[in-house]
Structure prediction request, 308 residues.
Amino acid sequence: MRVLITGGTGLVGARLIQRLEKRQDKVDLLTRRPAAARERFGPTVNVVEGDPTKPGPWMEAAAECDAVVNLAGENLFARRWNDDFKKLIRDSRVQATANVAQALAKAPRRSDGTPRVLVNASAIGIYGPHGDEELTEESAPGNDFLSSVCVDWEAAVKPAEAAGARVALIRIGIVLDKLGGALAQFLMPFKLGAGGPVASGRQWMSWIHHEDLVGLFLLALDNPAAAGPINGVSPKPVTNKEFAKALGRALHRPAFLPLPGFVLRLRIGAAAEVVVSGQRVLPKRAFALDYAFKFPTIGAALVDAVAG
Prediction:
């Protein structure tokens, strides 16, 4: 399989490229920094220069691949949210997806007549905060800022879907990977013995080990039945307090110093709501597609994530 990846230099993308190469798929990487990408990934990855938020010649490469994995999107925690940054959060996702969908809509089928595949990132933020309520792919969207971003993000795939391509949407939860993301932010205070729950600690954390997230992306690429939204979370979400205890055990450090919600809001502004609200999301669709989670429980997942 020949797969074009956008956002491939990020945390999830780099892990996915490793797995694709390991199984001898061909990888095309779309990037605005081709020299850095070639140095990082070597000659086995075909680097395509371009910006997914802008139409360009790269769209021809997308239309020639068997599949596209679209991971493009600005980091939510790159800086404090203001109107300009919130626009960037939205545009970096929606415009990139619209361009990828447009490229595939022009050539939705491969030479053998089978549909090309678009596996598009999304996020469990689409559901909004729901307290203790269990949420599945069938749950309705929320009405906050991130929910509206995700709704527009997912809607942008429709031209490819309407043209006949198969489209899967991976709604990503909290990724456990010590190389980046939320876990990397937690590690330092815990290693210093200053870790603990955030705010009340009662909010739910719908997490996933990086190996299982990549596994779900591969499932979406390979399984003809994988279409529509797929929650990229483990089957056993935990409260923030349970997460803190498990991380403390994995690091052999105490986990009893709470971080008040107002302190987090002072540090990172409105983005703190992503952490203090929480969601209890279940991977109903992944089970229907017979995906077997390698790390279904938080204890084993954290032990492996902080070690590997």
